[in-house]
Amino acid sequence: MLNDEIIDEVRAIREAHAAKFNFDLWAIYEDLKKSEAERIAAGHPYVSLPAFPPMPNSAFQRTRFARR
To answer: What is the pTM of this model?
Structure first.
């Protein structure tokens, strides 16, 4: 498999972040939520996803991927 410098860097950062919390998923989650709250408080935009995906509005959209 090919090695990509960017992928390797992202994986190293992720590994270091997980090691910082002794690979405890709950602690990692809490840190990410804390970081998210800090960014929102600092005025960074936050975009939430819609609760349900939009419904197709034409017969073509409803059947386009039906056979895949």
So the answer is: 0.59
- Read off the pLDDT of residues 18-66 as tens digits, 9 standing for 90 and up: 999 999 999 999 999 999 999 999 999 888 887 777 666 666 555 655 5
Record the tokens describing residue 3, joined without a space.
């090695």
- Residue 2 tokens, joined: 């090919």
- Number of C-alpha atoms within 13 angstroms, CB side, residue 46? 11
Q: Where are the domains of the chain?
A: 5-63
3-state secondary structure the chain: CCCCHHHHHHHHHHHHHHHHCCCCHHHHHHHHHHHHHHHHHCCCCCCCCCCCCCCCCCHHHHHCCCCC
What length does the chain have?
68
CA max distance for the chain? 52
